[in-house]
Amino acid sequence: MIVIEEPHLQVKDGKARLMAKIRIPEAAYDVWVGRIGGMERYAGYEKMYQRGSGEFELWYETDAEFVHGMCCERSDAFVLAVIYFAMITGEDVKSLAPLSNEFAHSLNTYLIPLHCNERTGYRTIRVLAETEHALLDTVGENGTGISCGVDSLDTVLRYCEKDMDPEHRLTCLCLSNTGAFYNMPDMKKCIAGTMTVREWDEKAEAQFEAECVRGKRVADELGLSFVPVNSNISSLYQGAFLQSHAYRNCSAVLALEKLFGHYYYASAGESEKLWTGLENDASDNVWLFSTETVRFYMGSRERTRIEKLEFLSGYEVAKKYLHVCSNESYNCGKCGKCFRTLLILELIGKLDQFAPAFETTEFYERKKWKKFVWILDKRPDDQFAADMYAYMKKNNLQIPPIAWLYHYTLPVRRLIKKVIKK
Length: 422
What we know:
This protein is an alpha/beta fold. Helix content is 42%, strand content 15%. The strands form two sheets. Strands 1, 2, 3, 4, 5, 7, 9, 10, 11, 12 and 13 form an eleven-stranded mixed sheet that branches. Strands 6-8 form a two-stranded parallel ribbon. A hairpin with a 2-residue loop joins strand 2 and strand 3 (15-23). The longest helix has 26 residues, at 197-222. The chain is globular.
């Protein structure tokens, strides 16, 4: 069983830190490493994973001016922080501090049964705690994250529009260091032994600080407040962010539960589906994280990435600050996310308008007709490629014949790749 002790608060040197000690059985770490290492993308995970010893103290830290928003009366943030780890390892969670009644009910009645059952093969667990249903005193800010990605900026600007009703209009931008800055290439370096986990932590911390500067600029230009939240939650997970990002990011929101009334979690805009396992991105379940005090919503779930970029092209702040890169604090123009975004911008005729956001597009431009091969190869199992293909057909945009010919060599290319891998 994972046991979470009562949260406590510390204010020092201009920072406010919310902390709670968590006791995790050694056997849980064994299961965690085995489960995550068994996923193809995390092969070799056990070589770099560093376990907590004794009591792991989880913390969230923000500027002292927001200390009034931090919640030590309830343990909602800490339970949400460990629940993914608990479901993977099959460990019950016991909180010594009360939980919000709505939150505890959603976890035990909906979230856990959705992911832990005979179909998925994960053991059903329980969250054990006293519950309280009273609404906490809250400032009532309406917040969302500001990664400056397409989904993020779309959510920000949608909720800033003049016709948005006052009760739900955005008032606050947040940026949390809960794992997004720990990229996969660096994880591979840690597994290979060419980078230490400490160096990985330091690089992520530096990128978080750089992104805070960008986020604050966007907030200032839009007349919104900006709340940075640092955390050591990545020391528990050390990877698996794609699968657990909603749990981690929303736990940082609940650490400041008394600051918010509504929180909008940006959606990738994929077609609606029911997640019933723990190996996939489960961000569509954020509504289950709501409490009596904070209500979570999925932002822009009904729009495709193409529709979002068309919308963003009407805002100078988006053209200036768009940041989609997987690997760098700037848009490298080479990674998968940069490539995909540039391709959409070209299709909708907005590439030149977003030039300020990309240092260079030279790598993308060299692809010429080969960039269309990606759409053809990926469209059967990639929602973004499928959307692009549908957009091209609808708007009579032609794919070069040579791209079609090369696409037909896909079975051979897959075979060669498999042989080389062996």
